[in-house]
Amino acid sequence: MVHGPDDVRIDERARPVPGEGEVLMAMEWGGICGSDLAYWKRGASGTATLAHPLVLGHEVAGRIAALGPGVTGLAEGQPVTVHPAELVGDGALPSAIAGRTNLYPHIRYFGSAAFDPHTDGGFSEYRAVRAEQIRPLPESVGTEAGALAEPLAVALHAVGRVPALQGRTVLVNGAGPIGSLVVAAARLRGAASVVAADLSASSLAVARAMGAGATRDLSRGEPLPEDVDVAFEASGAPSALGPVLRATARGGTVVQVGNLPGTAAPATLGDLVTRELTWIGSYRFVDEIDTALTALRDGLDVTPVISHRFPLTRAEEALTVAADPAAGSSKVMLRLGEAEG
């Protein structure tokens, strides 16, 4: 649980009892995300600020330990992951964005302080979860890989923002866990070639393992490719925008995957106009977690993005490694309970 900036603790709570329409999950694996690090380091993520202690974690998987009243179609012992979003209210959206539930204005998300009371995440031994948010894992997918279905869904949603990727050239700028998963998603969707760029040699090695045909080490002054059809900007660094826009072919598309700052920041954007580029955002996902599980079932190997594994009792050490660029980490995993893999 994060209690404030630089204050994360292992707290003891009573085991939850699943209510009507809920299941009790025995958690096994969780992946540390940038928002977890933001709450830990700053006590806030984006516009969401801690008002109370919060259980972190929205990339989780485990097994069903008990069924609450009224739950059908699931079984005790079943390996599952979680769709971390819960719409608050009637769920109605304007016709222009019908079905794009990721854009609904009021969403409770695992491990988020956006609401008060906050929505606890899944970095715990047990958690009660609404049955509608449960996603069974395919028989061939273990719970460690299952915990990566959520970030893979983010990557698949980003790639899906470009309807026709088949046969096109792609740049992924920023080869952290999400960027490396975007590499895999782009290949999955038929991209002809994918170039990954980053300041970290270890991150670029992960991107190559996930399917990048070429890499650019920006720390060594290697230039971005020229005239790519589609660029995915996954670093979230305003200083990266100018070079990424310049690397995109005239009339091409830039998908903004990395979270940009919520405050004013300098950026070079002239090529957006003169190259007549399409610049679009990508936020979380709708139901691509189901597509992610299908991809995992069909053999997509996401384990190259995992760089470190820690038990829950060493959560602060895990967060420290995940936040330290010098540690060479990619996806840092927490073993939350007795996992079978």
From TrEMBL:
Keyword Metal-binding: yes
Start and end residues of each Alcohol dehydrogenase-like N-terminal domain: 19-139
Listed GO MF terms: oxidoreductase activity; zinc ion binding
Start and end residues of each Alcohol dehydrogenase-like C-terminal domain: 177-293
CDD domains (alphabetical): idonate-5-DH
Source superkingdom: Bacteria
Keyword hit for Manganese: no
Cofactor(s) listed: Zn(2+)
Membrane spanning stretches: none
Keywords from the UniProt entry: Metal-binding, Oxidoreductase, Zinc
InterPro entries: ADH-like_C, ADH-like_N, ADH_Zn_CS, GroES-like_sf, NAD(P)-bd_dom_sf
Family membership: Belongs to the zinc-containing alcohol dehydrogenase family.
Protein name listed in UniProt: L-idonate 5-dehydrogenase
Source taxonomy: Bacteria, Bacillati, Actinomycetota, Actinomycetes, Kitasatosporales
